[in-house]
Amino acid sequence: MDGALKIGELAARLGLNPRTIRYYEQAGILPEPERSRGGFRLYTDEDAERLRFVKSAQRVGLTLGEIKEVLAFRDRDQRPCRYVAGVIEQRLAEIDERMRELRTLKHELTELRERMHAEGIAERDAPYCHYIEAAGRPS
User: Fold this and answer.
1) Where does residue 125 rank: exposed (0-12), middle (13-18), buried (19+ CB within 10 A)?
2) Which has the closest alpha carbon to 34: 44, 24, 21, 49?
3) How far apart are CA 19 and CA 11, in angstroms?
4) In 1-139, which ranges are E strands?
5) Neighbours of 79 (CB within 10 A)
6) Of 29, 28, 36, nearest to 8 (Cα)?
7) Per-residue pLDDT reduced to its tens digit, 11-66
8) Which CATH number fits domain 1-60: 3.40.50.170, 3.40.50.1820, 3.40.190.10, 1.10.1660.10?
């Protein structure tokens, strides 16, 4: 196989750890490569392109399962963009919900901090920290 890369060379080219590449093989993200006579894994430019896509997809928040599905579309010679659009919509909805949760948490923590400072961070007879214990009780 001319132009083939060993795992260390491929990893260095893409800024990955060789263990990550082996993991992607085990997870079905990357097909099992051909082997040299000495048993070394030999990767192609197509493998490098696939791994670049995986890195890009992870960067925009796709899970490995979602990435695997996108790759399966490609392996079946189908276009995955409608699937990706649905994943992006779902991820945005999840982010919006998480941001609402974080705003609520920030508000609660700000109130707790203000109470602690107003009271001078008083220690009371409580099993743990009375500020946290009081925060967990229903109003």
Assistant:
1) exposed
2) 44
3) 9
4) 34-35, 41-42
5) 9
6) 36
7) 999 999 999 999 999 999 999 999 999 999 999 999 999 999 999 999 999 999 99
8) 1.10.1660.10
**Residue 74 to residue 127: CA distance in whole angstroms:** 58
pLDDT in tens, 53-80: 999 999 999 999 999 999 999 999 999 9
pTM comes to 0.74
3-state secondary structure of 41: strand
What CA–CA distance (Å, rounded) separates 52 from 39?
Answer: 25
Q: Which amino acid is at 55?
A: K
What is the rounded distance in angstroms from the CA atom of residue 130 to the CA atom of residue 124? 7
